[in-house]
Amino acid sequence: MNIDQALIALCRKHDLTALSVGVSMPADSAPWFTTYAHYLMNGDRRCGGASSATATEAIAHAIQQVNEARACVVEVPDMELGEVVL
Questions:
Q1: Which residues of 56-71 are buried (b: 16+ CB within 10 A; e: fewer)?
Q2: pLDDT tens, 5-56?
Q3: Nearest to 22 by CA among 10, 11, 14, 31
Q4: CB 3.0–4.6 Å: which of 17, 61, 63, 77 could bond 50 by disulfide?
Q5: Residue 47 near residue 37, CB atoms below 8 Å
């Protein structure tokens, strides 16, 4: 599978709007990958990001951040602090 096909498949599987993958190629060390997984939550654009020594790990960690963010959303009604009596 080509990288473009793989990234599109991952976006569809994880309900992402995009995956951005960058690679840094230092002259004196191994490559380093940075990934941003873009998604919508309640109409807001958001992203999770990660870096790693391999593209696979960076992508997996970025998607994991998205999944954690989606799972942690807690709806709390608007509240006001009234008079406090001690």
A1: eebbbbbbebbeeeee
A2: 999 999 999 999 999 999 999 999 999 999 999 999 989 999 999 999 999 9
A3: 31
A4: 61
A5: yes
DSSP 69: H
In the chain, % helix, strand, coil (3-state, to 5) comes to 35, 30, 35
Asked if residue 64 lies in contact with residue 52, where contact means CB atoms within 8 angstroms, the answer is no
- Rounded to whole angstroms, the Cα distance separating 23 from 35 reads 9
* Cα 57 to Cα 34: distance, rounded to the nearest angstrom: 10
Between CA 39 and CA 15 the distance in angstroms is: 7
Sign for the pseudo-dihedral over CA of 37, 38, 40, 44: positive
